[in-house]
Design a protein that fits this description.
The complex is a heterodimer. Chain A has one domain. In chain A, 83% of the residues lie in helices and 0% in strands. Chain A has six helices and no strands. In chain A, helix 2 runs antiparallel to helix 4. The N terminus of chain A is likely disordered. Chain B has one domain. Chain B is mostly helical. Chain B is built from six helices and no strands. Chain B is globular, with a radius of gyration of 19 Å. In chain B, helix 1 crosses helix 5. The chains are: A mainly alpha, B mainly alpha. At the A-B interface, helix 2, helix 3, helix 4, helix 5 and helix 6 of A face helix 1, helix 3, helix 4, helix 5 and helix 6 of B.
Chain lengths: 139, 146
Amino acid sequence: MTLPLPAALNQVTPSAWAAAAMIATVVLASTTGEVLTAAAMKSIGDLDEIRARAGMKGAIKAVVTCPLFFAGVFFLAVAFFALLFALSHLNLSLVAPAAASLTLVTNAIAGKLFLKENVDRRRWAAAVLVCVGVYLLAH
Amino acid sequence: MAHSSLSARQYLILAFVSISAPLGDTLLARGMTHMPAVTLAHPFALVAAVFTPWIAAGIALLIAFFASYLTALSWADLTFVLPATALGNVMVALLSRFWLHEVISPERWAGIVLITLGVGFVAQGPSLTERAQPAEEEPMKEVATR
């Protein structure tokens, strides 16, 4: 039985699975990190206003005393090292566009589900257009 | 405080976020491709990589990116900031075309058009999801709805 899969998926070798796993790790870790970080910054409030009121020190203090922020940074760090790891095994023209473009769509989904952001048709369209665009541009 | 329309300063921060991220990534990629492949058997090679010049410069730029990115997230939605700042990829591609005279393939031109369209879509809308504000806050400025 043959499925109408894209050419890349038809030749599923261990290395293709490994590549998919590396990219999925980057995408999942970075989406988790982005959502946690965004939630942290929303809970802190407008940083420009905090800086106007309490100075740069106050703004930095507001950020580094937020546990949610460190949870986000932890996952972003995981994503960063997963990306470095993937870059040393896979072609840059595969990893960079795949990770960057998939992250846009997973973030739109996660933003709607977890951050309750108003992801209207305009934002879905933007996420999909930019996702395809980043893929084409970086490829 | 909700800002549905952004100030010039906030647009500047978004512009810096969008340009510093792809430039930082380019520096990292340049650094990593000049290194031998890192394996799971020797994960500490990644730590050594951090101290090579290209990667160190990339990390410095990405730290500046992160500070301005956090600022942007404090007054705009994640699903606004991410697509909006993808415009930086377009700027870097156009810089490489007109400054470094690199050839841009039709596929990459298509990518440039799609990103620009997408950013146009998201930039037309509100930058922050409206939420009920706590009652003790100072009186809210009128929030534009479109």
